[in-house]
């Protein structure tokens, strides 16, 4: 039997190029001999937008669709107006490929600095909905630029969309030792969407009697994330609340330098996409200063998604060992960190 | 010349009763002889809702309108379905009295514990918009309870509403030593509302050349609030983002036990309302365990709003001194803390 991974690689803008190179290095090093890795690089992001005005065409989507998975570095540059690449590329891809499970683990590893006092135990995963809520782009503007301008944003939430992501989160909670799931929303103010989320959550809960559940308003959740982060095991939440709490979660569990994410289509109908939570960081781009760890951990999520659990675990262990070892040492370059991780997973 | 304050008092639910009693005690103690204080107590909240089904009637609003200001304890009880008192009382009042400046200072006082490591310097104020955004209650549900349910929430943003709160925030920044103002939004995703906020912010900025401005996405802002809180001086943001970042801000600057807020109508057309950021905490209600400090600090905001700056400053100083002194001592009761603060402001 021969196995192969057909991977689309999108380095993107800024430090995206540098961190993806190291991610691929570690991926090659960890794969067993019998797994063939084929990569196709795609040039998306600011450069292409400036050259052609395009962000992501139908042809691009058709090409990407043929791959087993996508590895993304970062997209975004100050030379492009805010929203153009976000809506035109990142969100367009998440919506086109129905990436409804946006998976963002937060684990404070030994040796890693946290802004929190004491020695908090942090090990949870956020399941953020990825295709609905305030991210749909519904809404509009009238009388733009005048004193009578009105701008609306419409959060769209469907039983179909909420149930599938809630079900995914329950299954993940069920598979973890603590079996806890928290729903985060703001159902006391956003009563239409909030009641839908809460009702679906409570209904699906009946199918998972072993899972302990709780509900929490998003404002209160930010308090718990800094005062009692050990409280969380699995969190499920909407697209916008998920965006906010996962950045805070990354901050308390070692920073966005080590935060990985997967934009997952569980059905496999479309390829899933894996990317570090951080952005393109144009201020440090091209200087070899970026930490590729978040990208390497995203590669582990990718392998796990493709069923290569042992290889994913080897990457997680290599990163954990590297983070302990780097404590107190002078900062290494992007490449040095990648080399160290590749050596560990190969050895 | 004789002066008087005609105050509406709404103790509300749970610990609201206890903390408001101490707030009034400190208020009476701080007022000069020549200022007459008249209070009228109103019974709103869970008890009244269960007894009459009412949350806030037109007659209630007419009665409240006649006062100079409102002091609120807390509203909310688990016996009332989520959203009923929030939308039916708290938000109804904020909208009816056009409380568009929701003012929430965050200051980490000496002696106060923070979940953050090190000794962060925290002293900023959030100006949260209070009458628009996702809080308008616009939206709805179709096919409720079925697998085809769709629920929407519409965030409504107007140039009128955004400009007045942005202008208020610029004026506050201008009056502070550091003169810094940060706009928090998510203009790369919520492009309709985000561009309105950003355009208005940049336009008003031209009238305040001394104020240094920055823009920050809400997700990034949560990171800065835990890694670099000293970065902030004044923040202006929309209703929902303001709800989220002010709870996080309260958490890092000593907890919601000391977080005060004002729901302000700057024109004076309607009375402004002052309340602690915390809720009714039914789990500790009636036990004398609640810390009345947040309510007492809300009384200081109330006095400042009414032009009694010296008295407001006396309360702030009394609280600062009390917080230093309580460090390491056994916990005092609600009443003991109120007595101590009243003694300080009177002395
Ligand atoms: C860049 C932006 C569109 C994106 C989001 O809001 O989802 C980012 O913040 C993220 O969390 O992946
Ligand atoms: C209780 C709720 C309606 C309220 C809000 O969301 O504004 C509260 O969280 C607050 O911050 O005052």
From TrEMBL, chains A, B:
<dbReference type="InterPro" id="IPR023698">
    <property type="entry name" value="LeuB_actb"/>
</dbReference>
<keyword id="KW-0460">Magnesium</keyword>
<feature type="binding site">
    <location>
        <position position="243"/>
    </location>
    <ligand>
        <name>Mg(2+)</name>
    </ligand>
</feature>
<comment type="subunit">
    <text>Homodimer.</text>
</comment>
<feature type="binding site">
    <location>
        <position position="219"/>
    </location>
    <ligand>
        <name>Mg(2+)</name>
    </ligand>
</feature>
<keyword id="KW-0560">Oxidoreductase</keyword>
<keyword id="KW-0520">NAD</keyword>
<feature type="site" description="Important for catalysis">
    <location>
        <position position="186"/>
    </location>
</feature>
<feature type="site" description="Important for catalysis">
    <location>
        <position position="135"/>
    </location>
</feature>
<feature type="binding site">
    <location>
        <position position="247"/>
    </location>
    <ligand>
        <name>Mg(2+)</name>
    </ligand>
</feature>
<feature type="binding site">
    <location>
        <position position="219"/>
    </location>
    <ligand>
        <name>substrate</name>
    </ligand>
</feature>
<dbReference type="Pfam" id="PF00180">
    <property type="entry name" value="Iso_dh"/>
</dbReference>
<feature type="domain" description="Isopropylmalate dehydrogenase-like">
    <location>
        <begin position="6"/>
        <end position="341"/>
    </location>
</feature>
<feature type="binding site">
    <location>
        <position position="128"/>
    </location>
    <ligand>
        <name>substrate</name>
    </ligand>
</feature>
<comment type="similarity">
    <text>Belongs to the isocitrate and isopropylmalate dehydrogenases family. LeuB type 2 subfamily.</text>
</comment>
<feature type="binding site">
    <location>
        <position position="104"/>
    </location>
    <ligand>
        <name>substrate</name>
    </ligand>
</feature>
<dbReference type="InterPro" id="IPR019818">
    <property type="entry name" value="IsoCit/isopropylmalate_DH_CS"/>
</dbReference>
<keyword id="KW-0432">Leucine biosynthesis</keyword>
<keyword id="KW-0963">Cytoplasm</keyword>
<protein>
    <recommendedName>
        <fullName>3-isopropylmalate dehydrogenase</fullName>
        <ecNumber>1.1.1.85</ecNumber>
    </recommendedName>
</protein>
<feature type="binding site">
    <location>
        <position position="94"/>
    </location>
    <ligand>
        <name>substrate</name>
    </ligand>
</feature>
<keyword id="KW-0100">Branched-chain amino acid biosynthesis</keyword>
<comment type="pathway">
    <text>Amino-acid biosynthesis; L-leucine biosynthesis; L-leucine from 3-methyl-2-oxobutanoate: step 3/4.</text>
</comment>
<keyword id="KW-0464">Manganese</keyword>
<comment type="function">
    <text>Catalyzes the oxidation of 3-carboxy-2-hydroxy-4-methylpentanoate (3-isopropylmalate) to 3-carboxy-4-methyl-2-oxopentanoate. The product decarboxylates to 4-methyl-2 oxopentanoate.</text>
</comment>
<dbReference type="InterPro" id="IPR024084">
    <property type="entry name" value="IsoPropMal-DH-like_dom"/>
</dbReference>
<keyword id="KW-0028">Amino-acid biosynthesis</keyword>
<dbReference type="InterPro" id="IPR050501">
    <property type="entry name" value="ICDH/IPMDH"/>
</dbReference>
<keyword id="KW-0479">Metal-binding</keyword>
<feature type="binding site">
    <location>
        <begin position="279"/>
        <end position="291"/>
    </location>
    <ligand>
        <name>NAD(+)</name>
    </ligand>
</feature>
<dbReference type="GO" id="GO:0003862">
    <property type="term" value="F:3-isopropylmalate dehydrogenase activity"/>
</dbReference>
